[in-house]
Amino acid sequence: MKKCTAIKISAFILLLLILSGCGSSAPANSQGAAANPPAAISDISAVTGKKTEYVYIPPQGVDISKEVHLTMYVLGDIPSDIDLVYQEVNKMLKDRINATIEMKYLSWGEWTSKYSLVLASGEDLDLMYTSDWANYSTESAKGAFYELTDDFINTYMPYVAKSQNPASLKQATIDGRLYAIPKNTAGLENEGWVIIRKDLEEKYGMSNIDSIEKLEEYYKAVLANESGVLPYAHAQITTTGAFNSVAWRQPNHLSYLTNIDWCYKYPGNNAAPDFSEITYCWYRDDAIPYYELMKKWADLGFWSKNAISNTEQTRDAFENGKSASLIWNETIFLAGRNLRSNNPEWDFEVLDVSPGTPRKQALFTNDAVAITSSSKNPERAAMFIDFVKSDLDFYFQICGGIKDKHYEIINDGTQWTLGPDADKYPWTPSLWCFNWNESTYPTDATVLPEQLEFRNIQEKLLISPDIAAFRFDMEPVKNEMAAINALAVEYGNILELGMAPDIQATLNEWKQKANSAGMGRIEAELEKQYNAWKSTL
To answer: Is 268 helix (H, G, I), strand (E, B) or coil?
Structure first.
């Protein structure tokens, strides 16, 4: 991030400000002064206790004389200490941009049904968490989000204008228009890592499990020797079963389009493929061996025959010693740490069962924040975004909570770690969209050495295909997409859990129903949109 320097005020101006009574908590004037004068904005960080260049100063010439109240929705579970934290958040907001904010949460169990309803409800709402997996393109097409023009960003989000990764803004642009500010860093695509019980691996005299075939041998050993421990504790899944990344897509260099279940084979370069190379994932010929493997493993008993109705989280089962493996994103390292904490005799190892295979870079737009088109105060909402994404102390206040309670600063201000009440306000509680640049603030001391080592290896394999920026607007075929997605859940569960007595007959039945539900209309619309997008490259 480019460095931001605090405004220096001459002694003469400071004297005038003092004489004018600017030390009060009310805004000094209507020309953009903060609730406290710039002289009160210290460059000594309350977080680290050291001088910092990451200090937010409101843009000059913007009228913030009227106090406003903002509302934002995010996804996830409400932290129990949210009221305590936001008392401090709002003190800082009031002081700097003469605003307050209320953070509302849509739980994981309700967000899919309520997200669009909230946006269309007429409720006073200014900001919304969004993502390519959380309706960004769909809601943008419906006009739910405020367009962020260059002039608007330069005026009300000058720090974002200077420091936001240009690739992130390009990725969030739809038909030449920007509707959200994404997070500012993108690492590895969040899937396809395997964690196993290292203590069991060593018990069976095994090592260097670097293929699906070797993973299968480990599973057989667990099944034969461990009572009450499944090789894998499958739970209810949808169309992204645990193994399809490691046993099918990674070995075949396949990736999904950004927001739908159509796949492409990424080449050695980043060029966008022809549409003829994009196919519905689940009908691909190279999916058949994967379905056959899942049936083989299910028949061997690698997971429960009742997996389709199992509601216990797969991660919980691994951490509690009921499962010998887990497949997910980088949070598996946290699961490994919890496993060690639950039993000192247990240990873990993270595997790459497709070593050397290119890894697609994650999307910046996996997490983003949008201003709603219904906001009565889009300018102040933009200033709030700018504040979070530029000011070290405010970022830690809203994302970390109360210092020495929810988080602690260690190692001479260079790292943070969890505080005694971290469970009451987990780090960045559903606020991933505000990530700006981790190199500019204290780093996470909770990251395990194994995680850093693994990440470094994987990042050397990163590619960033141009096609990652394409997103399908489902609105013209929304009814057909709803039907196709419902079929994918139904038949995807059957095939990925190895429950299909006859794989080809199951696929034929699925295809027949999909064709009747409008698969042809979706394909035609997708081809039209994709070719139009590709022509702009």
So the answer is: coil
